[in-house]
What does this fold into?
Amino acid sequence: MESKNKILPLDDASRQEVRPLDYYMGYFPNAQVLKSIHSYKANLKHTGEIGMVWADDKSVGDGNQIMRHLIDWREAHDRGDYEEALYHATAIAWRGDELLERYSQKKPPFDK
It folds into this structure.
């Protein structure tokens, strides 16, 4: 059976090394929840009520967005605005995931 997924290995031994549930629950669970909330809100903004779908053509991340959010995070943190700093820290993490996804899949702007 051929998989549509471009990342998951096909052989049983290698598939055992893919542990998404263990990762999600064992590493940084609060960060994972915050990113999922961030994704849900962005999804409503960009795609409306059609369900959780990454609109990868709406805002193409190339790494610069991470740096802008990092600057905004530091400014919010320095002035003691925890909520704004948390928003930007979450956006940094989300954009990091986006960068890794785009780069690993050779999606724009990394398709050349």
